[in-house]
Amino acid sequence: MAKEKTTFTCTECGGTSPRWLGKCPSCGAWNTLIEQVAEAAPGKNRLSAPQGYAGLANVQPVLPLAAIEAQDVARTPSGIDELDRVLGGGIVEGGVVLIGGDPGIGKSTLLLQAMDALQRAGLPTLYVTGEESGAQVALRSRRLGIDGSQVQLLAEIQLEKILATVEVTQPAVVVIDSIQTTYSDQLTSAPGSVAQVRECAAHLTRMAKGTGIAVILVGHVTKEGALAGPRVLEHMVDTVLYFEGDTHSQFRLVRAIKNRFGAVNEIGVFAMTEKGLKGVSNPSAIFLSQHSEPVPGSCVMVTLEGTRPLLVEIQALVDTGGPSPRRLSVGLDKDRLAMLLAVLHRHAGVACMDQDVFVNAVGGVRISEPAADLAVMLAITSSLRGKALPRGFLAFGEVGLAGEVRPAPRGQERLKEAAKLGFSVAVVPKANAPKKPIEGLTIHAVERVDEAMDVVRGM
Fold first, then answer.
1. What letter would DSSP give residue 412?
2. Domain ranges for the chain
3. Helix residue ranges per DSSP H, 35-180
4. Top-level CATH class of 298-457?
5. 317: helix, coil or strand?
6. Which helix (H) or strand (E) holds 268?
7. Dist. CA 254–CA 269, nearest whole Å
8. Residue 280 in contact with residue 291, Cβ under 8 Å?
9. Does the pLDDT at position 3 exceed 70?
């Protein structure tokens, strides 16, 4: 009997190689090639629609861009305000959403709640589960307090049967939980393989665009936290959401890293309760420690997550180090921390060369924008001096290598959010100083790091 021909496929990018290699020749990732049986060439294009389904296979006329009528997309609120915020206002007709996160973080719980809310609002929904039985999903719904739910449930992993059921039931929204368990009979590889994930996602995307049915795909994540399967999966869908947070913590963040119908990096904040995930209306309270008195090494900043300003507490601890002091940051870029310490020494005369420096963003939030620079430097200085910043103090601004303090985007919104929550003193870049005073907020506008240090020393 002839030996089956095998190829090696990269789990990161989907590239193939005729033999095993330690490094993927396409994307350069190490130890990602896995052996698979080579697929037999199909009799038609792999993106051809299943029999009896036209989808987008019809030839479309070529039109100039000016002749095409631009229409705003219609959105349907999901019934969960924080989820609607991340999606850009609601679920879009014919849109494809990919949501990923660690096991047990609450993906299925949130989607089950959203499907029930949509069903109660009069929209037909279909929940396809491939990881659990119908009895397990029903048990979860009872535990969440969802009684008498009319959400249609299908326990199936074969793509062709799922598409046939969708054609018969005609729901408005379909959830596939999860795309890694779904397989197509057109391929011989196992469910979860790169080829199966890519093929099933392509057919579901075509179905959504051709019929106007919104599709929500649940995706597994790798140990590094990225969505499992090839990155092409993220390019095929309209919206990519990530569930963030520690399973031991009560709070969860849902972040949009791609959204063709809304803002990227928008976040929704949820609290895990006995009755499921509940939206948090004032998320700034999560990221602020409740100190009875101001403590050294603590500085509050206002960060932007999409269109939402959030107040986050930056904590720093400076302690006597050994011959090779440590620089450790949680929630912030460690390389940027080393740069800020050098700027602090050169342009403000604050030396931490022989000190261990630890910096943490409270609440498990990750801050990627450089507007946190000034708050980090003031927190480090406060810890080194052992003197707390005054109550109601906040700071934000990007710091350059020449010691200048650069403006942060949308500074007015940041200051208004701080004033609304009762903060009274702010150190901000000069370009972010408001033209009109903000009631209850004293603003110190600075151009350089040493000016900011002088302002703080005088308080």
1. H
2. 6-37, 78-281, 298-457
3. 81-87, 107-120, 134-143, 159-169
4. alpha beta
5. strand
6. strand 267-273
7. 7
8. no
9. no
> Strand 96-100 vs strand 398-399: parallel, antiparallel, or unpaired?
unpaired
CA distance 348 to 367: 24
Using DSSP, state whether 118 is helix, strand or coil: helix
Cα 367 to chain centroid, rounded: 12
Residue 329 CB neighbours (<10 A):
21
Give the closest residue to 339 by CA, choosing from 383, 397, 399.
399
How many helices (H) and strands (E) in the chain? 10, 23
Between CA 235 and CA 205 the distance in angstroms is: 11
Express the helix, strand and coil content of the chain in percent, nearest 5 each.
Answer: 30, 25, 45
| Top-tier CATH class for 78-281 | alpha beta
Q: CA nearest 206: which of 236, 168, 176?
A: 236
The reported pLDDT for the residue numbered 291 is 79
Residue 246 and residue 74 in contact, taking contact as beta carbons nearer than 8 Å:
no
Main-chain phi, psi angles of 282, to 5 degrees: -125, 80
- The pTM of the full predicted model, rounded to 2 decimals, is 0.75
With contact defined as beta carbons under 8 Å apart, do 249 and 286 qualify?
Answer: no
Residue 87 has pLDDT above 80, yes or no: yes
Gap between the Cα atoms of 356 and 342, Å rounded: 14
pLDDT at 428: 95
Q: Which of 215, 219, 197 is nearest to 206 (CA)?
A: 215
Contact 301, 395 (CB under 8 A): yes
CA distances from residue 61 to 64, 66, 67 in whole angstroms, order as listed:
10, 14, 12
Note the helical H segments in 213-316.
Answer: 232-236
pLDDT average, residue stretch 344-370: 90
- pLDDT attached to residue 247: 66
User: Backbone dihedral region of 249: left (phi > 0), alpha (psi from -120 to 50 degrees) or beta?
Assistant: beta
The residue among 382, 364, 446 whose CA lies nearest residue 411 is: 446
Which residues, in sequence order, are bridge partners of residue 154?
128
Between 173 and 68, where is the model more confident?
173
DSSP 134: H
Nearest to 87 by CA among 309, 202, 253, 254: 254
Structure tokens at 310: 């959030």
More confident: 169 or 190? 169
Question: Which of 295, 298, 296, 267 has the alpha carbon at shortest distance from 283?
Answer: 267
HSE of 298, CA atoms in CB hemisphere, 13 A? 19
Residue type, 99: I
- Check pLDDT > 60 for residue 2: no
Burial zone of 273 (CB within 10 Å; 0-12 exposed, 13-18 middle, 19+ buried): exposed
- Token pair belonging to 338: 């080393």
